[in-house]
Structures are given as structure tokens and as C-alpha cells.
Write a structure and sequence with these properties.
Elements: E1 11-14, H1 24-51, H2 58-87, E2 91-93, H3 94-127, H4 132-135, H5 138-156, H6 158-163, E3 172-173, H7 180-184, H8 192-225, H9 230-263, H10 269-294, H11 296-318
Parallel strand pairs: 1-3
Antiparallel strand pairs: 1-2
């Protein structure tokens, strides 16, 4: 058996989707569409929040950070994936592989932490509305973003560091990107610490974050039930509905993909790889759509920008010529 020392300059080979190599060019079409949709959708919301002073509120600042995390995750994944599908560029250096792994998984942890912060924002908005502006100040939102970033770095950085200590017997990764467990399976060393730590991160992030989100929404529902006004109840539920849809889009594919990977559910490797890509891409693609549909402020700003551009164009054409 050929053994590759962990200290040498290794190059892994990404297979893409095993068994569907001949269809990679066709499969690149939906991924290209998702890439374009993510860039436009997330970029538009980032631009609107950054340039519109009226959107500099805690909720939209947290949304801004969420869109940035989604963009980082997408940019770490899709450029290499599309090069693989378009040009059959399968080679990836070990350093680039570990870097991609860090940014993909790290952005996912940051996204989850930001969803917890947004659940806290909704809790304060519904249960402590009179103290909303005093609790959720801009500096406090900044601290929430910093905590999310630190959490992502601290939890995910040991993954590539532990992998660098291993010796690899296989260099062909049957995946479209450097997923942590897929790379661990390439090693011929004792990988139990890597597997245990990967499982710990998943349970800690998904388990703890979902518990905190559920606790926040439990308190919100408790407050909503006590409201006597039907209009107030509807307004409170509508305030939280957008965040609830985003939570469903984010966690449901992630939980199913993780269970399929570790418990060994009876699904094909191709289906698992599709799931692993979709759980990273679907939140990034649908989050701007969900917030664009549900948030009237974003709808108004987008409509204002669309009306402004034609008006400016008409003004240029109608400008009287200098005599």
C-alpha cells in the first residue's frame, strides 16, 4: 500500500460525484444558477443594509452579518466545484483543501451562531419591546457578531490542524469539496480523535444552538399566548415567521445530511453528496428570497432603487442641450 507522509506536499484529487462524472457538465448548470442567485441576492441585501441608514437597526445588522457568512461559505465551495465540473480540474493541494474545509465549516458555525443572535433579537422585540433599543445597541450587536466569529474559528480550526498530523493512504476524495469526514476517511492512521471531535462540533453547534433558539421561541410563544389583542398576536407571530423559515431552511438539510453520513442511512453516495452540497447552498440561496418577501423595508428599498435608475436615465435624455 502506498503511504503518503503527512509532512510532505500532498495533492488530493476531488472526484466530484462518483458515477456521474460524464454528467458533470450538465450538473454544473443548476450549480451555476445557484451561484449567480446567491451572489445577486446576498450582494443586494449587503449593499442595501450598508448604504441605507434607515436599515442600520439590530435586526438588519445581524442580517447583514448572516449574508456575509453565506457569501464566504459559497465562495469557498462553488468556484472550485465549477472548475471541477467545467474543466475537470480535480487536483487540490492539501493546504488549499484544509483551507477550504476551514472556511466552509467555519462559516456554517458562524451562520448558526448568528441565527441564535437573531432569535434573541426576536425575543427582545416581542417580550421586551420597551427595552429593545437599550438592550440591542449597535455595540452589543457588534459583540454578538464577534462572538459568532470567535466561536467559528475556535471550534473549526482544530479540524484541519488534527488532519495535518495524519498519514494518508488514499488521495482520491469521493466528494465535490474537502468535507471533514471525507478527508478523515483518506487517512490510514488512527482517526478516532478526528471522528469524535467532528461529532462533538456537530452536537455542540446544532444541539446547543437549536436548544437556545427553541428556548427563545418558547418564551416568545408564552408571551404571545397572553396577548389579548388578535392584531397584536398576529403582529408578534409575523415578526418571528421570517426567522423561523430561515431556521428550517438552514437546519433541516444539515441534520439529515449529517445523520446520513454518520449513521449510514440507506441512501446512495451520489444522493449524500448532493445533500452535502445543498445543505450549504440552500440557506445562502433562499435567505435573501425569504427576507425579501417577508421584510417590507427591504421591498421598499429595492423598489426605490429600481425606480431611481429609470428616472435618472430619463433625466439624462431629457436634459436640454447647451447652445
Amino acid at each position: 500500500m502506498l503511504i503518503f507522509n503527512h509532512s510532505s506536499f500532498l495533492t488530493f484529487t476531488l472526484m466530484g460525484i462518483p458515477g456521474l462524472e460524464s454528467q458533470h457538465l450538465w450538473l454544473s448548470l443548476p450549480f451555476s444558477f445557484m451561484f449567480l442567485a446567491i451572489l445577486i441576492g446576498n450582494g443586494a441585501i449587503i449593499f442595501l443594509v450598508a448604504t441605507e441608514p434607515t436599515l442600520h437597526t439590530p435586526m438588519y445588522l445581524l442580517l447583514f452579518l448572516l449574508m456575509v457568512a453565506d457569501l464566504i461559505s459559497t465562495l469557498a465551495l462553488l468556484p472550485k466545484l465549477l472548475c471541477l465540473f467545467w474543466f475537470n480540474d480535480q487536483a487540490i493541494a492539501s493546504s488549499a483543501c484544509f483551507t477550504q474545509m476551514f472556511f466552509i465549516h467555519g462559516a456554517s458555525v458562524v451562520r448558526s451562531a448568528l441565527l441564535v443572535a437573531m432569535a434573541f433579537d426576536r425575543f427582545v422585540a416581542v417580550c421586551r419591546p420597551l427595552r429593545y433599543n437599550t438592550i440591542l445597541t449597535h455595540s452589543f450587536v457588534g459583540w454578538l457578531g464577534l462572538v459568532a466569529l470567535v466561536k467559528g474559528v475556535i471550534l473549526v480550526l482544530p479540524m484541519p490542524l488534527l488532519l495535518q498530523r495524519l498519514t494518508f493512504c488514499h488521495m482520491v476524495i469521493p466528494h465535490t469539496y474537502c468535507d471533514h469526514m471525507s478527508v478523515v476517511k483518506m487517512a490510514c492512521d488512527h482517526t478516532r480523535p478526528n471522528r469524535i471531535y467532528g461529532l462533538f462540533v456537530i452536537l455542540f453547534v446544532v444541539g446547543l444552538d437549536l436548544l437556545l433558539i427553541a428556548f427563545s421561541y418558547g418564551l416568545i410563544l408564552q408571551t404571545v399566548v397572553r396577548l389579548n389583542s388578535r392584531d397584536a398576536t398576529f403582529k408578534a407571530l409575523n415578526t418571528c415567521s421570517t426567522h423561523f423559515f430561515v431556521i428550517m431552511v438552514t437546519y433541516m438539510p444539515a441534520i439529515f445530511s449529517s445523520l446520513a453520513h454518520r449513521i449510514g442511512l440507506n441512501i446512495s453516495p451520489q444522493a449524500h453528496i448532493f445533500l452535502a452540497n445543498l445543505y450549504l447552498l440552500l440557506p445562502s440561496m433562499f435567505n435573501p428570497i425569504i427576507y425579501g418577501i417577508k421584510m417590507k423595508e427591504i421591498q421598499g428599498k429595492v423598489a426605490k432603487c429600481l425606480r431611481r435608475e429609470p428616472a435618472e436615465g430619463v433625466g439624462l435624455y431629457n436634459k436640454p442641450a447647451n447652445k
